[in-house]
Design goal:
Blueprint: H1 2-21, E1 24-28, H2 30-36, H3 38-75, H4 81-106, H5 111-137, E2 140-145, H6 163-170
Parallel strand pairs: 1-2
Protein name: Periplasmic chaperone for outer membrane proteins Skp
GO molecular function: unfolded protein binding
Family: Belongs to the Skp family.
Length: 176
């Protein structure tokens, strides 16, 4: 009797653990979804416009430094040592100013990346909400992003690609 009770207990335990092993998984391609979203194109264009303005400013600073260096080289024989050193310091100051500008704008926590995060945040929130709804509708326990770096996905079966469901959830029609 004691032995049969143990077997029944083990069977009940195995039956309860079975649903845990059968979790449903899928993946999406966030890059594909973003490229299909009309707002993403607008955001990219706005970022490109802002970036080109800042690049022009950086190029103007670099051109100014180059012009000052060429002018210094041309007038080098006419200047006293003190005047030469003053102009050289002026060029070094401009170079430092240029480097600081580039770091402030295009650096790791620069204004460009802050602007990008600011513009992308609403779109990413919409996308995350759509992903969450698709995951719940399809009873997915795990959903991977194929476009994420570094991607651990080596092979994907298209049957498990939920990118189109996310696009549908966002209200974006497929334009083939």
């Amino acid at each position: 009797m004691n032995k049969s009770l143990k077997i029944v207990f083990l069977m009940l335990l195995a039956l309860q653990a079975a649903p845990l092993a059968a979790q449903k998984m899928g993946y999406i391609d966030s890059e594909y979804i973003l490229n299909k979203h009309p707002d993403y194109k607008i955001i990219q264009q706005e970022l490109e416009n802002i970036s080109s303005e800042w690049k022009k400013e950086a190029q103007n600073l670099d051109k100014e430094i180059k012009d000052l260096s060429v002018q210094l080289k041309a007038e080098e024989v006419l200047l006293t040592e003190e005047m030469y050193q003053q102009r050289l310091e002026g060029i070094k100051l401009k170079q430092k100013e240029s480097h600081e500008f580039n770091s402030r704008i295009f650096g790791i926590n620069g204004q460009y990346f802050q602007k990008q995060a600011e513009l992308m945040q609403p779109l990413q929130s919409k996308m995350y909400d759509a992903i969450e709804r698709v995951s719940r509708k399809n009873n997915l326990a795990i959903l991977f992003d194929k476009a994420a770096e570094p991607s651990a996905i080596i092979y994907t079966d298209p049957r498990h690609d939920y990118s189109e469901f996310v696009l549908e959830e966002l209200g974006i029609e497929e334009n083939k």
